[in-house]
Amino acid sequence: MGLSGRHSGLLMPPWLLLICLQLGTGLERINYVPQLSSATLAGTLTQSTFTLEQPRGQFSHLNISDFDPIWLVVAQSNASQNFIAPQRVEDTPVPADLPQRGYYLTMMASRALYPGSQPGNQLRVLRVGNDTGCFPTTRGCNHPLPGPGPYRVKFLVMSDRGPVAETEWSSDTLLQQAEALQATPGLQSTGTVVIIATLSVLLAVLLTTLLALLIYTW
Fold first, then answer.
1. Using CA atoms, how far apart are residues 71 and 203, in angstroms rounded to an integer?
2. Could you tell me if residue 123 is left (phi over 0), alpha (psi between -120 and 50 degrees) or otherwise beta?
3. Cα dist from 8 to 12, 17, 22, 52, 216, whole Å
4. How far is Cα 170 from Cα 14, in angstroms, rounded to an integer?
5. pLDDT surpassing 60 at residue 11
6. What is the distance between the alpha carbons of residues 132 and 205, in angstroms, rounded to a whole number?
7. What is the mean pLDDT of the chain?
8. Do residues 153 and 172 touch, judged by C-beta distance below 8 A?
9. What does each C-alpha distance from 116 to 45, 69, 89, 113 come to in angstroms?
10. Structure pTM?
11. Is 11 exposed, middle or buried (0-12, 13-18, 19+ CB in 10 A)?
C-alpha cells in the first residue's frame, strides 16, 4: 500500500502539477496579447521604433493595486523564452542589457493610465523606442531599438513583493530595414568616369582646332 501510494503521487497529472507550480510562484497570467497599433499612423514601424495599442482595462484584477508599476518587457524573439521576471524593481534590466540578456524593461506606468474606457476620440498608443534623450543604462529608458529584430513584448506587473501578473507575449515584430543604395550601371564606375573625361578633353581640343582653322581661312 505504501509503495502504491508513492507511485500515485509520482503519477500526478501534468496539468495539476502546472497549477501547483503557478500557485507557488503567485504570478497571475492575464489573457491579453499586445498588438501593434491598428490606427493609420505615420511611422507605426520605423528602423528603431514600433507602436503598440495601449492595454486598456487589462489590469483591473483584485491582486493588482493602483500603486503597482506596470512595465513593458521588450525582448529579442529568440530570447523571450529565457525571460526571468526580476524580483525587485532595482534589478530590472535596462536597454543596455539587450545584447547580453536579450530583453529589458521600459515604459513604466500604472493601471490608472490604462482605464477600460477611452474618453472621446483620443488616440492612446505606446511608441516603443521613442526616447532619444535617455541613456540606455538608465532604468526605464525607452531607448531606440538597436536593430531590425524581430522583437516580442509583454506587460509585467510588479509590486514591493515581486512580480504580480503578466500578459502573453506578442507575435514577432520586424522593424523596417534601410535599403542599400545601388549604383547606376555604367555611370558610377571609375573607368567610365575616366573615359568620359578623356572624351570631353579631346572634343574641346577638336573644337578649338576647328575654330582656329576657320579664323585662319577667313
1. 71
2. beta
3. 7, 13, 21, 47, 119
4. 26
5. no
6. 57
7. 79
8. no
9. 26, 17, 26, 10
10. 0.67
11. exposed
Question: How wide is the angle at C-alpha 137 spanned by C-alphas 131 and 140, nearest 5°?
Answer: 55
| Class of residue 15 by CB neighbours under 10 A (exposed 0-12, middle 13-18, buried 19+) | exposed
Which residue has cell 498608443? 125
26-167: CATH topology = Immunoglobulin-like (2.60.40)
Place of cell 500604472: 110
CA–CA dist 172, 131 (Å, integer): 22
Give mean pLDDT, residues 169-191.
Answer: 69
Radius of gyration (Cα) for the chain, nearest Å? 31
Are the C-beta atoms of residues 170 and 35 closer than 8 Å to each other? yes
**Which residue did the predictor score with more confidence, 43 or 114?**
114
Share of the chain above pLDDT 90, in %: 32
Domain locations along the chain: 26-167
